[in-house]
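Intended use. Records like the one below are meant for learning the mapping from a protein sequence to its folded structure. Do not use them to infer anything beyond what is encoded.
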Amino acid sequence: MGNVALSVLLRPAITPAQSGMFPLLAGVAVVQAIGEALPAGVKAMLKWPNDVLIEGAKCAGLLIDAAPLGNRVDWLVIGMGINVAFAPVVAGRAVTCLAAHGAKLTAEQLAAAVLARLAEALQIHQEYGAGLTIERWMSQAHPFGSEMAVKVGETAVKGRFEGLSAGGELMLRVGKRIESFSTGEILLGWKEE
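Structure written out for the chain above:
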């Protein structure tokens, strides 16, 4: 029994701007598959834009790569790494694995569950659009109003989570204004000054 390292190649009929939904729908698929493997009382949570946490420790990550071709996407790859049997040591970061929380399944079983949930998430997104994908992501994510910081380069902007924009960007309330981020490292639990 090991860990999951899985890449999925897609050729969606989308524009480059629409590719921002794919980390969200892939995250929903992964967190649902993980949730089905965990015992009652243990919950996996999405952290924008591409991490899955259990009790604050990272157990999975997602990467999206896409190749634009004119005004459309030629191909898109969803890369997923899920710690099933063991967690690698990462300096300065809390990392965990599913086995440490009582999950009893193989990497192959989890990969099959992720692929099934991903097919379902893609179908739902195609039929109902970005709004439902965002709603599904929010139902599995850090709570609305969570204190956090968004670190871009060496700068960290502190505020409260205000949800996601229609394009999947993170919305952060900073004082009386809302700022949106399309990239950055999220540091949960940072308090506003």
